[in-house]
Amino acid sequence: MTEQKDRELYRWLRLIREFEGRISALDKQGKLMGGVYSGKGQEAVTVGFCHDLRWDDWIFPLHRDLGAFLVKGADPRRLMAQIFGKRDGYAKGKDSYLHGGDLSNGIFGATSCLGATLPVAAGMAYKFKIRKEDRVAIAFFGEGASSRGDAHEAMNFAGVHKLPVIFVCENNFYAYSTPNELQFGVDDVADRAAGYGFKGEVVSGNDLHAVMKTAGKAIDRARRGDGPTLVECKTYRYHGHSEHDRADYRTEEEVITWESRDPISQWENYLEKRKYDIAALKKETTDEVLRIVEDAVAFAEANPAPEGPEAMEDLYAMPIDTEAP
Amino acid sequence: MLVTYIEAIRQAMDEELARDKNVLLMGEDVGVLGGAFKATAGLQEKHGADRVVDMPISESLIVGAGVGLAVQGMRPILEIQFIDFISCGFDQVVNSAATLRYRHGGQTACPIVVRGPSGGGVHGGLYHSQNPEAWFCHVPGLKVVAPATAYDAKGLLKSAIRDDDPVIYFEHKFLYRRIKEEIPAEEYLVPIGKAALRKEGRDLTVITYGAPLHAVMKAARDMASEVDIEVIDLRTLLPIDWPAVKASVRKTGKVLIVHEARLTGGIGGEVAARIAQDCFEDLDGPVMRLCARDVHTPFAPAMEEYVLPNQEKICEAIRKLAAY
Lengths: 325, 324
Fold this sequence. Notes:
The complex is a heterodimer. Chain A is of the alpha/beta class. Helix content of chain A is 42%, strand content 10%. Chain A has ten helices and seven strands. Chain B is of the alpha/beta class. Chain B contains twelve helices and 14 strands. In chain B, the strands form three sheets. A seven-stranded mixed β-sheet of chain B has the order 3-2-4-5-7-6-12, with helices on both faces. A five-stranded mixed β-sheet of chain B has the order 9-11-10-13-14, sandwiched between helices. In chain B, strands 1-8 form a two-stranded antiparallel sheet. In chain B, helix 3 packs parallel to helix 4. The termini of chain B are far apart. The chains are: A alpha/beta, B alpha/beta. The interface between A and B is large, with 46 and 45 residues.
């Protein structure tokens, strides 16, 4: 990898962590309403899969993939405004967090029925295929959502038509509080790929090199028409399911073990080995990401909140007045 | 051109597939077989297997894939083999499709049509007789249509395919081959959101939609010497054409609502409530409803007859209302 790319990837990892860290802090200060789903600890998955995509590829992030939004090109200001429920958020205040996607950058907004984006991604990939467009769809889902019928239906269809879609399972070992062993009877979700007629791979989701290597192969395969891949990234979320969840269902030792495998620290170690001036790079990156986050928060705080009657907008192509006399 | 109701549906899809390369049709057995009822007969051969797609038995996928296609500017027609099975794809309809535009702050349209055979009277039993339209009329962001004639079946389906919002299209399987009508050879559309005045009358209004329209019309003709009945066919159930409903109620002062779906929680309740509130001064009798009994649609003929509305029950309800 070039030095420039090494630095760029580092910048993304750090921006995501800083951005999400600020959201968690704002939540603690009582400045946000609604749920906050931190992806802290899982940054290498979203950076690894989104960084090398083309602008006209599509991603279907899960509720914890704020990082995917940023790397795929969402405007940090508008994303922060969305989290504040403000008018210039992608959802214009209709919903928060990642429900409003940035469709101009190929970022689809998910519903709260986890895994429901997988059929949508498969449908879109079907269009790429029949129109002979060499674009790909990346569908992220948690290991918890792998239990849903939508995951099965989407992968089965993708296998039938060899669709250019990559199913990325972010296995962080807990679906809210439910551990893997109560979620499925296999060791690896990736094993299921065999049942759909395509390749399944397991990768360390905290190792950006490993993620990028696997992602690159899967994306190439999809782009050249050789069909889907199921990639399972083993990773860990440092926070609870959402900020109100203290995550008492797991042990402190387990958290410490995973913190020792932190994706950002791993990347910093790599950068050090490449003999970069890591101290200078850290400082320079910190300054830059703080600037972006401060700017986004200032924008979001100043952005007007939608008025009550705006609730009736964006429902239909042409407004329907059902309360007419 | 003399066509059956199902042929009108087939023609609508055939014409739209030919007119717009972004239209495609997906469903179980719609391709090689031409559909369980032959509503899609010959379409795969004519328009290609890429655009008329035999799908796995996965209703949630069928609707969800439609949403993904819609975001790409395609206009998928999604056939549910029996509309009873839409419950398996319910989440994709109400949470995924219906909120797509809203949760994206107006960034995208969602031009999908979910269509399938509904209704009883064919001894289909519990899972091939359902009329679940009310579930969807409760969901903002959707449009719901239920044609009763071959003319409307074609014109409404073509409008639904061209509409930028998700449309749930209920085709009544009892009508598929039982009605035959002259329809224009040239292209036409029936607008979504407009009711049809099927018969003018002075004494009372019957508001209905779908298959019962035909029993209502026959009742109105048979009872012409007793009572002068006005008949409104809603055609679209979301949004309802309130101006047409209210104009008729203001004229006749008496209303009977007839639908094949169950009474409790049905469309009739919503229509009755609106009339009670907005036309209170105009009413000369209670707003009445004749609907299916609050039970599943049973298989054995005598039980099915007992549960569903029929002409005899309609006449009885009309006499009762006329007496006020």
